[in-house]
Design goal:
This protein is mainly α and 534 residues long. Helices cover 79% and strands 0% of the residues.
Length: 534
């Protein structure tokens, strides 16, 4: 029971530690990934350092999926990050082997836990996240302490002496046990901790521990595979990358195991002066991933093409990148939401151009508007699960919600019957709007051009509002002196009001997208008069 409880406490500690570090470094990691993933080697280094910082390859993988989905990094770059994350995940084994068994950290764990809880409950809101890190760190080593006690009687569970590592059958069985351990614990770090503790307690020998670690490296892909079910193609490709990399590396390492073990023994003696089995196992774990990186990195482009063929992209659906797994990393989730809303704006731009050119609601126009309506439902559900903590993320989150609100209103305006009347009764005004929309459509592929178009849209919206005010009065004055039929005047005014709403909501949605990229906080414009028409 001590061992089971120790694993539970260890997992809880890892969860708190990872969540705390992720919250502290989340925005920094996002900028880091966007800046330092220009080539395969820099991508690998980025994946390694990110995983070491947050102590979770899963967190790195999720953030990577978000960036691939948002189009900020290529799938080839993501392969480098995943391989780097595999190497970074071995840092937990080093932490345990170098500290966990050398000094009595269990005695220190309770004060550290107390400090962490105190910070979480009594510190200011900006400091509370550090409490989770302290609490997680304390629980981590408290769990290792319980594991050590439990592993003293591990021989009562499984007779490991019957597993002869000279037997192929026993090797496969040990690898299978390692896979099952990781799947049950849902964390390779916990499985590694249990293996290191069993080795330290003498419940297993070094050879058995090595094959358990090989199995655990395969088993760690299970979380990504399960998470990718029903997710985006980017998530499926990332999970496939993880699986193929670890399985292929496991096969190669198993074949070369005699040579690798001799090198591990030599290197460990050089490091510690004698063969420390726990340090040797941590070294073997790192060598496993490093060897895989050496074999795979030169062929990342070919590997990428293979996976692209095996998992081709779906039809160009607006919501294909709204992966629910991203909501745990707000910066990545909001970036994907931004890219999705940008594509929705592009689709509505095309729809409006078709409406003006055809002077009627065509089948193509209806299809585009319907696709955006369906996307609105999906992105609302997606954003409802995202929780932003930092002030910059909150500003971006609010900006995204404003964009969604204005797009929803814009679709409602396009669905009104006045859309065709607006084209016919205000032909000159609509031609000017058509010209502006064409400029915007050509700018969607360039962020700099999009930022510049926000000013063009603002001027256009002000001009339309001014024309709405002046023309409305003129139409009514003509009606008063019987120069125009009342019904004609009312139709023209309704067309004006419709165009005003159309341009206004398009502009405001566009402005909020710009604010998202700048991370600014801004109030909704109230400078227009007579906004009751909205």
């Amino acid at each position: 029971m001590n061992a089971i409880g120790g694993i539970g406490i260890f997992l809880l500690g890892m969860s708190l530690l990872t969540n705390g570090l992720k919250e502290i470094a989340g925005e920094t990691l996002k900028k880091w990934m966007n800046t330092f993933t220009k080539g395969t080697l820099t991508s690998l280094l980025t994946g390694f350092l990110m995983t070491v910082l947050v102590q979770s390859s899963t967190a790195t993988t999720i953030l990577t999926v978000g960036f691939v989905s948002a189009g900020l990094i290529s799938f080839v770059q993501s392969i480098g990050i995943i391989i780097g994350a595999n190497i970074g995940s071995t840092s937990t084994g080093w932490l345990i082997s170098l500290l966990g068994f050398k000094i009595s950290l269990q005695a220190m764990s309770l004060p550290v836990i107390a400090l962490g809880v105190l910070i979480q409950y009594m510190a200011p809101s900006d400091i509370k996240k550090y409490g989770g890190v302290f609490t997680g760190f304390g629980l981590l080593f408290l769990g290792i302490g319980f594991l050590q006690k439990g592993m003293e009687n591990a021989q009562d569970w499984i007779r490991f002496e019957s597993f002869d590592t000279d037997s192929v059958w026993s090797i496969f069985l040990l690898i299978g046990i390692g896979i099952v351990m990781t799947i049950i614990m849902q964390a390779s770090s916990a499985a590694m901790a249990a293996t290191l503790t069993a080795l330290f307690a003498g419940a297993i020998d070094f050879g058995q521990a090595v094959f358990l670690v090989i199995g655990q490296n395969i088993g760690t892909t299970a979380t990504a595979i399960v998470a990718s079910i029903g997710s985006s193609v980017a998530a499926k490709r990332t999970a496939a990358t993880h699986l193929l990399f670890n399985v292929a590396t496991a096969v190669i390492v198993t074949i070369l195991i005699p040579f690798i073990l001799r090198f591990v023994e030599f290197a460990t003696k050089a490091m510690t002066g004698s063969f420390d089995e726990t340090v040797g196992l941590a070294l073997f774990h790192t060598l496993f991933s490093v060897l895989g990186a050496i074999l795979f990195v030169p062929f990342t482009k070919q590997f990428s093409r293979l996976l692209t063929k095996l998992l081709p992209e779906k039809a160009n659906a607006l919501t294909r990148n709204l992966d629910e797994q991203l909501v745990s990393v707000p910066s990545a989730a909001l970036e994907v939401a931004y890219q999705t809303l940008l594509q929705m704006m592009k689709r509505l731009t095309d729809a409006m151009l078709e409406l003006i050119e055809a002077k009627k609601a065509t089948g193509s126009f209806e299809k585009k508007v319907r696709e955006v309506e369906e996307a609105i439902v999906h992105i609302r559900k997606f954003l409802n699960e995202v929780q932003s903590d930092s002030s910059k993320l909150r500003n971006q989150h609010v900006a995204i919600i404003h964009v969604l609100d204005h797009i929803t209103r814009l679709v409602r305006v396009l669905r009104e019957q006045q859309n065709v009347e607006g084209v016919f009764h205000q032909e000159k005004l609509m031609k000017r709007w058509h010209k502006t929309l064409e400029q915007i459509r050509e700018s969607f592929d360039s962020e700099e051009k999009l930022l510049a178009m926000e000013q063009v849209l603002e001027k256009t919206a002000y001009k339309v509002a001014e024309e709405r005010r002046t023309r409305r009065r003129k139409y009514y004055e003509r009606t008063a002196v019987r120069e125009t039929e009342l019904e004609v005047a009312m139709s023209k005014v309704q067309a004006l009001l419709w165009i005003d709403r159309l341009v206004y909501h398009y502009w405001r949605a566009f402005t909020r997208l710009v604010q998202f990229k700048k991370g600014e906080e801004a109030e909704e414009s109230t400078s227009f008069q007579e906004r009751e028409v909205l």
